[in-house]
Specification:
This protein has one domain (about 1-60, about 100-230): TIM Barrel, CATH 3.20.20.370. It is about 30% helix and about 15% strand. The protein is built from seven helices and seven strands; from the N terminus they run βαβαβαβαβαβααβ. The chain has helices spanning about 15-25, 40-50, 95-115, 135-145, 180-185, 200-205, 210-220, and strands spanning about 1-10, 30-35, 55-60, 120-125, 165, 190-195, 230. β5 (about 165), α5 and β6 (about 190-195) form a beta-alpha-beta unit. α1 runs parallel beside α2 and α1 (about 15-25) packs parallel to α7. The radius of gyration is 17 Å and the shape is globular.
Length: about 230
């Protein structure tokens, strides 16, 4: 038996993304999602989440998209005031850790201010898995008393991990109904499946290169059958 958690990233990025995630929960297998506190539809997502308490909501920490919540983090932003880091952050100089901690605490505190229970921590583009953030993530996990999405950098801290492993292949061409036959070879007791369901809207086309495939994911997540050897995590 394997415990499986389907998590949908990017809650609050746009209204279409938010609606797609909610549909994949109410009509499909998605059990949890992670909220971007600087998304185009963050407030909308919070309102919707409160109508569906069965959907667990965590935080999608951001360092590679949009504007920070903090005003005084000069080394994290470019001249336009948006984060200067990208999904290619591993090739960039490590950031000022004090400023990152300040910003991520601002995002976490903004989440808690919504009144939603904080389910877990993960991040946009897996930036929390950058080795330079290992101690910071462990500290935030312990302080806010929530688990963290698995990354290799944290494998020696099993007590704070949400699952034993993370399945990243449900993405682009890997997002297909053959998921569970591929999962059978996984040697883990628990696994999180990262997903990105959405109803594609104009806002999404303006902010993300991953677009139409999100609707394919939505369809699959609403139609996939759970085999007997899988236990869905609560």
């Amino acid at each position: 038996m394997v415990k499986v958690l389907f998590n949908a990233d990017d809650f609050g990025l746009t209204k279409g993304v938010t609606d797609g995630i909610l549909h994949s929960h109410t009509n499909g297998v998605v059990q949890s999602t992670t909220l971007m506190m600087n998304g185009l539809a963050t407030e909308y997502a919070v309102e919707k989440a409160k109508l569906f308490p069965s959907l667990h909501v965590g935080i999608h920490l951001v360092l590679t998209y949009g504007k920070p919540l903090s005003e005084d983090v000069p080394t994290l932003v470019n001249e336009q005031g948006v984060f200067r880091y990208t999904n290619a952050f591993l090739k960039m100089e490590p950031p000022n850790l004090e400023e990152v901690e300040k910003e991520w605490r601002a995002q976490l505190d903004a989440f808690l201010a919504t009144g939603l229970p904080l389910h877990h921590i993960d991040s946009h583009h897996h930036v929390h898995g950058w080795d330079v953030f290992k101690e910071l993530i462990v500290k935030l996990s312990n302080e806010y008393q929530v688990p963290v999405r698995y990354t290799d950098s944290l494998k020696n801290y099993p007590d704070i991990l949400l699952t034993d492993s993370l399945w990243l292949d449900f993405y682009e061409d890997g997002a297909n109904e053959d998921l569970f036959s591929r999962l059978k070879s996984l040697e883990s007791k628990s696994v999180e499946i990262m997903t990105h369901p959405a109803i594609v809207d104009l806002d999404l086309r303006s902010v993300s290169s991953y677009q139409d495939k999100r609707e394919d994911e939505l369809h699959i997540l609403c139609n996939i059958k759970i085999p007997e050897w899988v236990v869905m995590m609560q």
